[in-house]
Amino acid sequence: MNREKLQHLLNEARARTFLVVGDVMLDEFVRGRVSRISPEAPVPVVEVQHEASYPGGAANVARNLRPFCGGVHLCGLVGDDVHAARLRQLLEKEGIAPDALVADPEASTIVKTRIVARQQQVVRVDREKRPQEMAGATARACEVVARLIPTVDAVILEDYGKGFLGQELKDRVCELARQHGKVVSADPNPGNPLDWRGVDLLKPNRSEAFAMVGRRDPGATAVPMEDRALREVGEKLLSRWDLSGLLITLGEHGMMLFERGGEPFHTPTRAREVFDVSGAGDTAIALYTLAISSGAPSREAAEISNHASGVVVAKLGTATLTAAELLASFDQDER
Fold first, then answer.
1. Strands 77-78 and 245-249, how do they pair?
2. Would you say 106 and 131 are in contact if contact means Cβ atoms under 8 Å apart?
3. Active-site position among 153, 282, 331, 333
4. Is residue 220 classed as helix, strand or coil in its secondary structure?
5. What are the domain boundaries of the chain?
6. Catalytic residue at 282?
């Protein structure tokens, strides 16, 4: 894809609006240095130098979309707590509409706190509490989705296996999207075995793809197009859920796109440096869906997604990228 065509797609994307539905969370990063071991226990003492918070999970998908499009709505479950207030504040600061968030006083907002020293994660502290009954939250989410789907261009389902995205909600989203002619893409979680029929595109990573068919991953081959096990898994998932497309991310081997009635398409990694892979999958599905909804053919959308992922893994934390960085990645590839 040349720069002129990519720029045209980016211009088209500015008029698009998206709805992201899934498990939202707050990512906290505590960064510092380690110079001694605690006298209380054989653990490092981290002297805090910097703290930051970012929207995470499905909210990070929304963050990746926002620099490129006209608007993003985010639907997910939060508690009635200070972390939900902080998350809403961060979303509004980034221009993401938090109006579709579903608050439940019996739940707690999911918070992941990473303590990092010298670019190495020392420990992660997770805080989460699911409500005992999800029916009420699901019903409210369905009402919000029904209101918003006519106003958006595409929907992304982001499943982190935290319990919000159940079969009922997924089916209702797909039903509404079909009625209004909207594209639906999904990032699955094998720990939440949903029936994904009705979505247009599924984007697992390699280990998730093998897990979803109950097959042990024998390990990647040097040439992905000659990886028989990968191709068999891809074709099986494509057929099982009657998907239009299946994009499997392969880490250092790039991505492979499977489509009905054609040969798989492999795009090698565009990452030049890798500092942090957290959130790369969020970037992949966000930019693929953005490209498809803006008129890109599926293979070009996969290339855009791959370049975008290559940019964010060179950054620390759950990072995003800009249009200028994406264009620069394509420019480097042409040299």
1. unpaired
2. yes
3. 282
4. coil
5. 3-26+56-111+128-334
6. yes
Q: Is the dihedral of CA 201, 202, 206, 209 positive or negative?
A: negative
Q: DSSP secondary structure string, 92-119?
A: HHTT-B-TT-EE-TTSEEEEEEEEEETT
- The answer to whether 67 and 322 have CB atoms below 8 angstroms apart is yes
Task: Give the integer Cα–Cα distance in Å for 178 and 245.
Answer: 16
DSSP state, 266?
E
DSSP-derived secondary structure for 223-265: SGGG-HHHHHHHHHHHHHTT-SEEEEE-GGG-EEEEETTS--E
3-26+56-111+128-334 is classed in which CATH architecture?
3-Layer(aba) Sandwich (3.40)
pLDDT tens digits for range 23-80: 999 999 999 999 899 999 999 999 999 999 999 999 999 999 999 999 999 999 999 9
**Residue 293, both tokens:** 């909804």
* d(C-alpha 298, C-alpha 290), whole Å: 11
Q: How far apart are CA 145 and CA 20, in angstroms?
A: 10
CB 310 within 8 A of CB 271: yes
Q: Which two tokens stand for residue 205?
A: 């990573």
Tens-digit pLDDT profile for residues 177-216: 999 999 999 999 999 999 999 999 999 999 999 999 999 9
**Position 178, amino acid:** R
Phi, psi of 110 (to 5 degrees): -70, 125
Residues 6+ apart with CB under 8 A from 92: 98
Amino acid at 10: L
Quote the CA–CA distance of 242 and 314 in Å, as a whole number: 35
Q: Which among 182, 52, 165 has a CA at the least distance from the CA of 102?
A: 165
